[in-house]
Each structure stands twice: as structure tokens, then as C-alpha cells.
Amino acid sequence: MAVRTQATPARTTRRHASRPQGTVAEKIRTFAFFGAPGLFVYACFVLAPILISLGYSLTNHNPFNPPTRFVGLRNYLVLFTDAEFLTSLRVTTILTVIVVIVPNVAGLGIALLLDRRSWFYNAMRTVFFTPMVLSSVVVSIVWTRMLDDQGLVNQALRALGIADPPGWLSDPRIALYSIAVILSWQLLGFCVVVYLAGLQGVPRELTEAAAMDGAGPVRRFRSVTWPLLAPALTINTVVLLISAFKTFDHVQVITHGGPGTGTTATIAYNILQTGLVANRQGYASAMAIVMLVIIAAASAVTLKILSRREISL
To answer: Which stretches are tagged as biased composition: Low complexity (predicted)?
Structure first.
């Protein structure tokens, strides 16, 4: 007896078009609820001060010597022939170079030493990060007492047989480097934490495979660990560059721009002195705009170069 089989009709699957994420009105409402407050705060506290400073920089504004007149680009033309400003630019550049290099190198070395699993190393991470959360004024006062001619450092040097220790803050040849060391010490903890985070993200399989292939510790660091720390290097370099270039607190508390004339005066220090002490707010605004442009340009170039290195890896 022949069995007749009846083919069942194939089920046709319909691909439903994915629902849109939301209408335009819903997106606008979502942005207004979540994004608009942030943009409002940013506009009030970042964009508005920049625009106001830009406007003042085109005038001779002085609240104690009215009226205020529009002078165009004269402030900028005078600025680049001003010996005091050029000196502060040189001082700031030297300070920035030192602060970018020293905490980066020292922070990487300390992070390699602290990349262990125990309570002791966790406690040491806290110790190294503590200066970062302290006020710059507090750090400056403590180091001023330590580096004074009769301070703890010179007393220790005299105890070691050095009869005439250097004037760390009173010698014009040394004062700037002393401030650079203090600032580097305070920012060191940030670099340590960032590098530790990068080290903990390095796959153990890669280092173990390199060790099995006969690579020593130096070769493993150079060929495996260091390339994978490229994002940490980018973060640290950009943050250090910006922090060093806008240094004001340490100079104000420790040396007041001295010893001598402008030995340690940074651009930020000169801006505050020109705008709040000399009351030349139009000229100080021009200095601030120039500093903003320099920081933005240097940060953008550094970020582009280091990010390209990350991509190439």
C-alpha cells in the first residue's frame, strides 16, 4: 500500500525591520534631560570665561583707570616683545619638560616594583598616591620648611659633613629646579596609579610565553610590557604637560617668582600678578589667551603623536 506523503508548506520567516531607537522628539527630550544641563554648566564656567577673556584682551581694561578702550591686537604685539613674558615662557617650558619626564620615568619604575599582590604593596600604593590628594599650598609649605637654609634637608647635609649646603630656594640657579622636583613629587602618585592599571591589564599569557621562548626580564619588558603601556604613557604625558604649564600655587607660596627677578615666575604667575596686582586686566587676558593656545596646541600634538603610537602597536 503506497503511502502518500503530503509536503508541509514551508514556513516563511519575515524579517521585521528593527524598530527605530526613538523619534526625533524623543531624542530631543532625552538630550534636553541628560545633555543640556552639562552643556549649560560647561558654557557658563568654561566657554563664557574664555570669550570674556578674549574680549578683554582686545582692550586696555583697567578697573582703576577708566575708560576702557578697544586696542585691537596691540596687547598681543606688545606681549611678544615683552622681556618679562618671554622669560616666564622660558621658565614655564623648562619646568614643563622636567615635570613631564621625571614623574613618568620614576612612576613607571615604582609601578613595576609595586606590581605585586599583598597588603604591603597595596599600602605602599596608598602612600605614593597621598601627595596627589593634598592641597598644593600644603605641599608647598611643607617643602618650604624642609628646603629652607636651616631646614631638615640642609641639617642632614651638614650632619654628613657638607659645611655649606646649597640654598635650594634662595639660589637663583637652583630654585626653579627645586620647584620642579616638588611638583614632580606631588604628581608622582598619579603616574604610579595609571601605570599600575596598565600593568594589570597586560595579559600574563604573553609574558609567560616570552619567558618560555627564553626572553629575559629586560627583553620581556621591552617587547611585551612597554608596548602595551602606550595608553598609560599617553594619559600621564598629557596630564603632566597641562598641570606643569599652568603651575601657579607652588611658585606663589614658595618663591613669589624669585629669587631675583622672574627666576621662577611662570606664565600663570605673571598673569595673576599682572591682572590682580598691577590691575592691567586687558594685558593679563592677552597673556591668558596665549597660554591657552600654547597648552591646547602642545596637548593636541602630544596626544596625536602618542595616539598614533598606540594605533601602530
So the answer is: 1-11
